[in-house]
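Batch manifest, entry 17 of 40.
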Amino acid sequence: MIVIVEGTDLVGKSTLAERLSTDRGWPVVKLRWDLLGDPMVETTAMARATIALLQALRPDVIFDRSFLSWWAYGPVLGYDVAYMPGLAAGLARLPDLRVVLLTAAADELERRFNHQPDQWFGLEQIIAANERVPSIVDLLPETVARLTVDTTTSGPDDVFGQVVRFLHRDVLPSQPSDP
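Output type: structure tokens
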């Protein structure tokens, strides 16, 4: 099974990915690339290479973020992401894929940022990208199972429980999480 945990910084992706890794014994892959040139070229290359490797290897793995993050962050940073639906369509070739989208309310992101500032993005960028995260669902092929969890009031144990239940289902694509 391939699990992609998506969301902006400060929503709990790494906490969830590490906990799932401990529970499942699967590795966590944390892809972060520096945009050194054309973001469309780099994102396209990252997406195609990731999908091809996963399709060939069929590993049990947890991704702490993927190329899908660019859908949320690209426009916030001033870049066009109109090409992203075509890249996301390639995820249909991964039959054991599960996507978990994490979000949080703006005031909660601010609280978390004030407690521990993010090293990559400012608070305004994180909040703006967070507003776009739910629309990642619209990019995903219908065959990709997905779960959206708002971490504003859900603690790490609750989020983990929701995700474990989601992974254990005989999965067909689903929408927002159980309350």
